Amino acid sequence: MAVGGKERRPLEPQGRPRRVCVVTRAIGPGDDDTATAELARLFAGDGDEVTLLWVPGSDVPSSEEVAARHREFEAASVRLEVLDRSDQLLPSLATPESQSAALLHYLERSGHDLVYAPLEGGLPYYTLLAVETGAFAAPPVVVIAQAPLEWAHEADRAFMGSTDAIAVTYMEKYCAEMADRTICASAALRKWMLSKDWKVKKAVVTPLLQDRIDQAGVRSSVGKQSSKELVAFAGWHLRDGMTLLCDALDILAPTAPKGLTVTAFGPFGKIMGEHSGGLLLRRAERWPFKLNMVPRANLAAKLDYATRAGALAVIPARAASTGGAVAACIEAGLPFVATNVGAHAETWKPQARQPRLVDADAAALAQAILAALKDPPRPLPIDSLGQCRQSWLDTRNVPTPAKRRRIHKGAGSSPLVSIVMAHRNRPLYLKQAIAAIEAQTYDQLELVLVDDGSDLDEARRLLDVLEPTFRQRGWKILRRPQRHLGAARNAGIRAAHGELILFVDDDNALFPEAVEHFVRAMAISGADICTAFQLIFYEDFVPGDRADGLIQYLPLGGPDTLGLIHNVYGDANAMVRRSVFAQIGFWIEQPGYAMHDWEFFARASLAGLKLRPIPKPLYWYRSKPDGMFRTSNWYDNRLPVMEAFKSSQFGDLGQLYKLAIAQNTAQSEIESARENLKYTPANRKYLELCDVEPNSDAAMAKLAAIAASVGRPDTAATLLGRPQADERRDPDSADVGSNTLGFDMLRGARLLTPRPSPLPLLLVAPDGGGVFLRPHLEGAVAASLDHHFPPFFRKIEAIVEVAHADAPAMDFALALARPDRTIDWQQDIAAQTIAFSGWITVKDKFVRHPLVVMLHARRKMPLSIVLAVRFAATPNGFPTNAFFRKLTLSG
Hints:
The chain has about 900 residues and is an alpha/beta fold. The protein has four domains: about 1-205, Glycogen Phosphorylase B (Rossmann fold, 3-Layer(aba) Sandwich), CATH 3.40.50; about 215-380, 3-Layer(aba) Sandwich (Rossmann fold), CATH 3.40.50.2000; about 415-655, Spore Coat Polysaccharide Biosynthesis Protein SpsA, Chain A; about 745-890, Jelly Rolls. Helices cover about 35% and strands about 20% of the residues. The strands form seven sheets. The chain has an eight-stranded mixed beta sheet with strand order 19-18-17-20-23-22-24-21, with helices on both faces. It has a seven-stranded parallel beta sheet with strand order 5-4-3-6-7-8-9, sandwiched between helices. Strands 25, 28, 30, 31, 32 and 34 form a six-stranded antiparallel beta sheet that branches. Residues about 1-10, about 215-225, about 405-410 and about 725-740 have low confidence and may be disordered. It comes from Mesorhizobium amorphae CCNWGS0123. This is Glycosyltransferase 2-like domain-containing protein. InterPro entries: DUF6212, Glyco_trans_2-like, Nucleotide-diphossugar_trans.
């Protein structure tokens, strides 16, 4: 592939192509995250051997989808792999930590020369942590930053509502700071990182790659006198500006050019709880424009549509970290109007002959759109793609950073390591733990075994047997009265000689290389404390094969914000510098307390000491029902941790405050747009849409039905992928999205007047047949639809019909009643109900008659709908087919 006039065929020193791994979290046809896929194609076209690694998380794609993607990238000489599991973890990669650990395990076996990974989600976290602790000689890792989670929450004006979100923000910050190269999609994003005290001064700014689009439609649009279509480049987040665009279109509506069309695209989501497609359709009820809604399209598809339609693009974002849409419109020579937020300002180029960007204000945006519609800008395509591609090709030249070459002072030495082990009455486990220490590959160590008052004969005899061997090796056995775990460990610290102290529980077993790994990690990282991953097992004897164990606990090492909620630091089997105890004190000695490690690590981290987990299993961890952790009380375990935070005067409480607010604020307040739909009966159809998965087939069908019900069959057609619908509508046609009660609701009808009858008095007919009631000689027959009249509605209309040629005349009635009120059908019905239609006599057959009930004032509670029939005169013995064909609610 020729780039910039040069033929590039990068080769490794061994003469083979460079092996590049590009990691991506999303790779669907509607995903805007196409930059990573484009990057894979670019490198493959330049001679690299490229693997595109798809990490979908818990949402594992179907085999058909994977096969389709394989074929797509195979054509570009890119190998696609899906990372949806790791043989060292539980099957589902359901958490950010498990996804990051799975990537580390993959890279350890893959042999790539260079790795590109998205910052978002913190995927390379454990890989970079493994580099820092010397657990993995990883290839250089380049992190690409587009929209970090903390930035996204701020831009969407939302607090983080989960501990997972806080964990991801911690992982993302670490990745941005520790990557061999961090690439920001914009200077605005880099500036934001620096404002948050991220150490990214050396981060480079390189715009994201964009797909090339067919330019055939662009030239045809340039010569037009005016534009007749707006294309909205607005996603479903609040920051994307859909509500701002709607506000602008409200202002524009009275003066808009005749015949204007507005086109918007999915995928859809929720804005303040409301379905974003429903939001647009609801707001469009006051616009004279034609509205197209295409269910799913990525940026390339939107550009292609806009260029071929000769449309004006509108980019109404309230915040932007990439400027990708503006850059793509300039690249395509597509006329556009955009807000001047964030990265948009640095992406806009005056030489492209585009209007200046406008403030994120509805009036300013409306004025700019109107001006551009009347006098469309004559865009001049700016070919910046070639320069952008060359910039990305140059990012592969990553020198081995100093931090990888640097060896911490003393890293080449072999300091004495004191292993401190507390023991009480577990001789079988103790023998296995000591055997594991004897098998260590690191020889500069001593074992200090502290017996905490063992009173079993077998345990005492074992200690007697061990004494001579310990003396010969210079190891120690301390026999003490029982003072519990913390006191035993502290006694071991005081008796130890090593500068590095490794705590090992007597029911666990170190891997042979464990001490060596711990010492290396402490030296290379400069950490004060190193914890490590573990393989868990449940038996009395240590497994012989590590393949039999799984990593189930994935400590991050921070942040302290989460350290108050759960132990993010690691297990007690950890290495600690002796100087740490002089700084923060010893282990807590409170009897019956099972979280000594959590409390100790929290104190250390809060004091500013450096703690790093080694993301590699270094020991077997035995889990038993009678273990201290499983037999202690969680409440008691957390009190000392809380005291540690209180004593440290922990000041970084911002995220905890936000978490507490987010988790304890009423959902109705967080989802205020959805809540507001309850107060206008005409919006009830949009409220129902909010409860459906936004991009499901059911949501598309419901959205299309709503569009048809509000007189927009053209919108319904585009949502369903059909040709434009006829503007004429059948007023009697059933409509799923209207306020007409469907079969699923009608079949809940309950008979209020049970009377002896050989034939059923109440039936509900499917397929729009309605509710059938059979009059009775003893009086009225009535049925109730309990709680089916929603709050804040005012009107209900029934369409009634006598559907038999020989049937006698019948009376029909309709009422609204309190659900807890029993009606006496021998008394005045109007006095017992909130609203009553009165009895309406129907004599003609097969003719539909309206029956209406109207409330004088809207009620804030649901009411029951009551249907009733009776003979108007003496029955003639013929069938009495009395139907309530349709029930429609309105405001």
